[in-house]
Design brief:
10 helices, about 0% strand, metal-binding, transmembrane helix, metal ion binding, 2 domains, about 60% helix, mainly alpha
Length: about 190
């Protein structure tokens, strides 16, 4: 009678396999959770949960980018206020911006904060050309004014060292500063 022995798996090998299984499952959960978190924080509803953002949402809703256009298109906050020049850059900027927004929501007084100076000083830091170009492919469409045509052609040729938001200052938020002022005046 021959004795057949099943080969025994060493403890180290068992631990390695167990670690690999947990690693794969953990990575899958992390990837799925990350995707869910990115998507769930990409909406205007999420952004306006911070009190200081409420008047900006109101101004955005009244603008072309908030859906007041013939096509009914609505851009979300992240469509303009995050770079679209690479996924890692997008996520890093999203994390930094989100952390900054949370901090400011707790530590600034919206009623006394100088929103006009802040917008002027930081507009180019939180509006990205790569975001504009995702939707605005044709910068010289039929019907553009001659000044717009000259400016956009200069931009496209690389002759104008400007960003979109330098000329289109408050394009995503109609009457932004007036809306903010009205919002905080009502709170006083």
């Amino acid at each position: 009678m021959s004795s057949r022995q099943t080969p025994r798996i060493s403890t180290a090998k068992k631990m390695w396999m167990l670690g690999a299984v947990f690693g794969v499952v953990g990575a899958m959960v992390l990837v799925l959770a990350s995707g869910f978190m990115v998507e769930s924080t990409n909406t205007d509803e999420f952004c306006s949960k911070c009190h200081v953002m409420e008047p900006f949402r109101t101004a955005w809703q009244a603008s072309v980018h908030g859906g007041k256009n013939p096509q009914g298109f609505t851009a979300q906050c992240v469509d303009c206020h995050l770079p679209h020049s690479g996924f890692v850059n997008y996520l890093v900027t999203k994390a930094i911006t989100g952390t900054s927004d949370i901090y400011h929501n707790f530590f600034i007084d919206g009623k006394s904060f100088d929103w006009a100076a802040n917008a002027e000083e930081n507009r180019l830091k939180f509006t990205f050309d790569s975001a504009c170009h995702r939707c605005h492919h044709n910068l010289t469409p039929p019907g553009i004014s001659s000044g717009g045509l000259i400016a956009h052609r200069s931009y496209l040729r690389g002759e104008a060292n400007k960003m979109c938001a330098e000329c289109h200052m408050h394009v995503g938020h109609k009457d932004m500063l007036q809306t903010v002022e009205k919002f905080y005046a009502a709170e006083k």
